[in-house]
Amino acid sequence: MATDRIILGIDPGTTIMGYGLIHQKSSVIEMISLGVVKLSQYHDQAIKLKKIFERTLWLIDEFKPDEAALESPFYGKNVQSMLKLGRAQGVAMAAALFRELPIFEYSPKKIKQSITGNGNASKQQVAAMLMSLLSLRTAPRYLDATDGLAVAVCHYFQKFKGMGEEGYSGWKGFISENPDRIT
Known about the structure:
By secondary structure, this protein is an alpha/beta fold. It has helices at 45-63, 79-98, 108-116, 123-133, 143-161, 171-177; strands at 4-11, 16-25, 28-38, 67-71, 103-106.
């Protein structure tokens, strides 16, 4: 398993899709980019899915990630919303598979647990921890962007831990190994 890799994280959505990219060199990660794809101006669901596919392909072609990690849809009471999210995730997965990128999936609870140590953390808590972890100076405008970044960082924690090296099980493990990076 390579320890120099780029990870693309995606928080699928049909109104806003968040994404984040990190670069891992050994046990150090740094943010490459994060942002959102705004889809609210499109009213046709098929066009939204097309835009998600195109933007995901663009991200892959632009940044050349080694792996893609996606947030899985959560089970809610609104079946229509869950179907739309599932379609958005499926289209992003299809784009990654089209570029022969390995894909990984994490539940929202797993992502929050990995980043903050609390599976019920708020989006704001996740964003604050990512800002500290990655030494970001300004908060992103959209929490969907930090959600996408959180998926990439969660994947790093999960995969790096499984490499037989001194991996981290989450934020707590990272802090204990890197006290100098906490302000």
